[in-house]
Amino acid sequence: MPELPEVEVVRRGLQAHVTDKTIMAVRVHHPRAVRRHEAGAGDLTARLLGASITGTGRRGKYLWLTLEEKAALVVHLGMSGQMLLGAVPNENHLRIAALLDDGTTLSFVDQRTFGGWMLADLITVDGTEVPTPVAHIARDPLDPLFNRNAVVTVLRQKHSEIKRQLLNQAVVSGIGNIYADEALWRAKVNGARLASGLPRKKLAEVLDAAAEVMTDALEQGGTSFDSLYVNVNGESGYFDRSLDAYGREGEPCRRCGAVMRREKFMNRSSFYCPRCQPRPRG
Questions:
Q1: Which of its termini does the chain have fewer beta carbons within 10 Å around, N or C?
Q2: Sequential pLDDT tens for the chain (282 residues)
């Protein structure tokens, strides 16, 4: 699933190419792509027709296009959703297409059909406008208003694994499995350590590491392991070449040379260095 850097790459592409454009036509090719819009495909297409796109927004992994009259088109990328401009490489996976007034087609392509579009109202939460479905999502480490010390205080009250809390979007958003492992490796913390048992300084280091690694990934277009994640022009990111922990089972740690390990975690995998990130005793 795309994490913060990948979603931000898509948002920036949309910001550059669709802002101040008007939607002239919309066609829903697959009903699952609008299942989150309770009023149905007909309502979504009717409300989008003639709507002007005034900007873009993102919080954590959540992306939206801002429209007139405090409305937002919320885009769920799911596991394989893509927002593409121009020609679509595989029309079998085309779920929604919108024609803009400059002749460009904005397409939502989704091979696994876990994602989709929905319309929602924009509301103000803590001084920031967000769509109603996103109101419960915490700020992410790249948000200018992210309060690291406040998040550290919340983490100190969580008697569960630090990695589990990094993935908790109500605590801190945008961090998924890949960047959690990368941040923990950089901070030399094992993901199985209890958040409540870590000193405030170390928790701050973990959050700083998350911000740093996601910034690094953003500069390289995000992480692409296959063709499912691409930017609006269909190009893949290449941060996968710079990963220090995720996917490196059996390879030497780039810091100390110990053999990297993989363990099951929440129906996923955790990758870590047994020397730099020793597991908690017991």
A1: C
A2: 789 999 999 999 999 999 999 999 999 999 999 999 999 999 999 999 999 999 999 999 999 999 998 999 999 998 889 999 998 888 999 999 999 999 999 999 999 999 999 999 999 999 999 999 999 999 999 999 999 999 999 999 999 999 999 999 999 999 999 999 999 999 999 999 999 999 999 999 999 999 999 999 999 888 875 566 678 888 878 788 889 999 999 999 999 999 999 999 988 999 999 999 999 986
Map out the domains of the chain with their CATH numbers.
Answer: 4-134 (3.20.190.10), 148-272 (1.10.8.50)
158 assigned to active site: no
DSSP H or E stretch at residue 109: strand 105-110
Residues with Cβ within 8 Å of 66's Cβ and at least 6 positions away in sequence, in order, are 53, 54, 55, 56, 57, 72, 122, 129
Q: Indicate if 47 belongs to the active site.
A: no
User: Does the annotation mark 3 as catalytic?
Assistant: yes
Active site residue 95: no
Question: pTM for this one?
Answer: 0.93
- Marked catalytic residue, from 268, 274, 275, 278: 268
Among 11, 58, 61, 248, the one annotated catalytic? 61
